[in-house]
Design brief:
By secondary structure, the protein is of the alpha/beta class. It has one domain: 3-Layer(aba) Sandwich (Rossmann fold), CATH 3.40.50.2300.
Length: about 120
Amino acid sequence: MARILIVDDEVHVVGALRRLLRREGFSIEVALNGEEALEKLATFPADVVISDFRMRGMNGLELLARVLSIAPKAVRVLISGHADLSGGSQSGIISHFISKPWDDDRLIADVRALLDGQGSVTPGP
């Protein structure tokens, strides 16, 4: 079972993603900020880290850069309604970008494709 760490400072977003991904059979942990996420990674070896871009303290791009250095095999997904980073990989930091609001079916398909080793998947509309 794939392990996914969800990081967002909005509790309702974390809850929605947790429910969606648990229904698909993934093992889920959540964190409400970047520092908490790094602490969770010490005991929860995530296969995928899904992080919001805009968070208090450490933003999602900064977090995913740290994830790359401590867990380089983890797939790093940035999710945001405020930034469009779908055009580039941000120097290899981001494996994939998802816009808020997301489409549930597309998000699940993208996560599965990334886990299957297909690398970066085509961004949605």
